[in-house]
């Protein structure tokens, strides 16, 4: 039991002593606040020693489950799921894992199903069978479309894009569900398209999704896709081993750059990178539609309005106008702050400057250039 032996003092005298007398909820809270970062660092160190051999990995994960499953089970299971030897790991560890899931609730229900339900293999792989079942049900693939997906045929990507667009405009809630789709799509991408990075699939995926998204009136959005993607990126970045994320959550395009190291990029591939960056920027900008601006100070609103463009600027402008229409008048001190703000900002935007000046004049404060 190498992991337990290597971390004996931490597990026995640090984690163990601190958890004495605590209930399950208090233990998880104590772990999250005081031990999670250190424990995960130790898991990553241990994995780096075990990653060259499947048998060693099995022993390593059995050890980690014994030591940390009461506190960080989902993190451990995600590591097993995203491992390149996940089929072998699950085959050897599922009987150890099943009893643990009887007393723990995972955020990702599909992950629970993977480790507790019988999955029919696809092409000799339980993981591939799991992904096939998951996406056929989730994005409603027609019979045969999974097998039909290939270089010149893209039913999975097309229906995934349709699912995402429909979901973020028609569901009043469902952050967790769409996050789960992105999670499993990164595993799918890792298996089928990530090594090496499939430029054609990436271009089709981002081009079609961004084109569909750009046709949406942002006021019709019901789910903040930008936040879903950002949170998924953070989660996958924490997992061991390093995950080759799909283009949907790989905000910095790390998987792409790793695969194309020192290569000359074609114009089409460069266009893909440009479009993906633009798409991520649009998602970031549209997050403004999910922020409650009521608690923003007047000066903060003015600052944000001045520094923003497009739909974002319109949202801040509308908030300022709404306050005016509901008689939420800035104080004399705040008006003086507006005057000071304009005096320290160059004439980069005449329209914005005139808008702020109008707010000042309408509140009967003398203003001069």
Write the layout of secondary structure elements.
Elements: H1 2-6, H2 8-19, H3 24-50, H4 54-82, H5 86-101, H6 109-116, H7 126-138, H8 145-148, H9 155-170, H10 175-192, H11 199-214, H12 225-238, H13 254-259, H14 267-286, H15 298-307, H16 310-325, H17 332-343, H18 350-362
Helix pairs in contact: 3-4, 4-5, 7-10, 9-11, 10-12, 11-14, 15-16, 15-17, 17-18
Offer a few descriptive terms.
369 residues; mainly alpha; 18 helices; disordered C terminus
Brief overview, please?
This protein is mostly helical and 369 residues long. It has helices at 2-6, 8-19, 24-50, 54-82, 86-101, 109-116, 126-138, 145-148, 155-170, 175-192, 199-214, 225-238, 254-259, 267-286, 298-307, 310-325, 332-343, 350-362. It has 18 helices and no strands.
How would you characterize this protein structure?
With 369 residues, the protein is mostly helical. Helices cover 69% and strands 0% of the residues. It contains 18 helices and no strands. The radius of gyration is 25 Å and the shape is globular. The N and C termini lie far apart (75 Å).
């Amino acid at each position: 039991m190498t992991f337990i032996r290597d971390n004996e003092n931490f597990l026995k005298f640090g984690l163990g002593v601190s958890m004495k007398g605590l209930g399950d909820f208090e233990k998880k809270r104590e772990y999250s606040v005081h031990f999670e970062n250190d424990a995960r660092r130790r898991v990553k160190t241990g994995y780096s020693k075990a990653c060259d051999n499947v048998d060693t990995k099995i022993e390593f994960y059995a050890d980690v489950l014994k030591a940390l499953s009461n506190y960080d089970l989902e993190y451990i299971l995600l590591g097993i799921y995203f491992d390149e030897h996940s089929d072998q790991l699950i085959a050897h560890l599922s009987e150890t894992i099943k009893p643990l899931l009887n007393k723990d609730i995972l955020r990702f229900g599909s992950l629970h199903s993977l480790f507790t339900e019988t999955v029919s293999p696809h092409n000799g792989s339980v993981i591939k069978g799991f992904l096939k079942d998951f996406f056929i049900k989730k994005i409603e693939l027609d019979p045969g479309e999974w097998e039909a997906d290939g270089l010149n045929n893209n039913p999975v990507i097309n229906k995934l894009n349709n699912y995402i667009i429909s979901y973020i405009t028609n569901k009043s809630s469902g952050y967790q569900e769409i996050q789960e789709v992105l999670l499993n799509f990164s595993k799918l991408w890792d298996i089928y398209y990530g090594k090496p990075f499939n430029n054609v699939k990436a271009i089709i995926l981002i081009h079609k999704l961004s084109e569909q998204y750009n046709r949406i009136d942002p006021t019709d959005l019901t789910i903040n896709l930008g936040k879903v993607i950002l949170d998924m990126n953070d989660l996958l970045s924490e997992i061991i081993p390093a995950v080759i994320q799909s283009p949907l959550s790989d905000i910095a395009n790390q998987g792409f750059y790793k695969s194309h190291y020192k290569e000359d990029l074609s114009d089409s591939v460069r266009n893909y990178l440009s479009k993906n960056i633009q798409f991520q920027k649009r998602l970031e900008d549209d997050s403004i539609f999910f922020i409650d601006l009521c608690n923003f100070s007047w000066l903060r609103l003015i600052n944000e309005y001045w520094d923003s463009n497009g739909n974002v600027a319109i949202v801040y402008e509308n908030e300022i106008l709404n306050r005016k229409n509901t008689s939420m008048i800035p104080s004399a001190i705040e008006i003086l702050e507006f005057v000071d703000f304009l005096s320290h900002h160059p004439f980069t935007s005449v329209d914005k400057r005139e808008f702020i000046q109008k707010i000042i004049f309408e509140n009967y404060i003398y203003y001069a250039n």
